Amino acid sequence: MFDVNMLLTSFGLIGILGIIFMETGLLIGFIFPGDTLLFTAGIMAHANPPFTPLWTLLVGIPIAAGLGDQLGFFIGRTAGPRMMDSRAMRWIGPEAVDKTNHYFDRFGAATVMLARFVGVVRTVTPVVAGISHMPYKKFTLYSVLGSTLWGTGFPLVGYLLGEIPFVQDFIHWFIIAGLATVFVPMSIKILTLMFRRWRAKRTAAKTATKLAPEEPSASRPGSDLSV
């Protein structure tokens, strides 16, 4: 049987809050499946003994999410349009940026709240809001609403699921499966990004080699002799 206590201790509340903050604060949310993480955290809080009381999740996660939004907004506001050409944005991909812009065109400022429930889009949204100079008070209002609904809803559903007798009997395996759905996609995403980066470097090296001027061939013996 897995040592769940050791597993939960090593993962920890601080680890969960750190990941939630980094999703939007450090623009690496495209790696972490945040929804699954919150859902799993709720189940983990129902374990016996719980790795942390439910109330710490319901309070800590919205705060971490809101602070991450604030940092992402600040980055967008200070870095401006050049942020869109940064390495982080290239890693996220143009599809996520286009999708975020589509949400802003359709829902306006409410995108800041709705994006919390859409993977990857929630990572880009604070930056785009900062670049577009959305009023800070309006951004903060929708950010708080979205962070609160998202940060309390998923853990609470997971916790209530832990009340089901079948889940209680196999809660160890539900926790392992939940964590696997977090770390396996994350690992695959990281490996994919590393492979793409390696392939891009290899392609660039081949292109540079083809474009490099050819060196003059060495003169063969006797080639300079007069006829």
From TrEMBL:
It is a multi-pass membrane protein. Residues 206-227 are annotated as: Disordered. InterPro entries: DedA-like (IPR032818), VTT_dom (IPR032816). GO terms for cellular component: plasma membrane. Keywords: Cell membrane, Membrane, Transmembrane, Transmembrane helix. It holds the Pfam family VTT_dom. It is found in: Cell membrane. This is SNARE-like domain protein. It comes from Corynebacterium durum F0235.
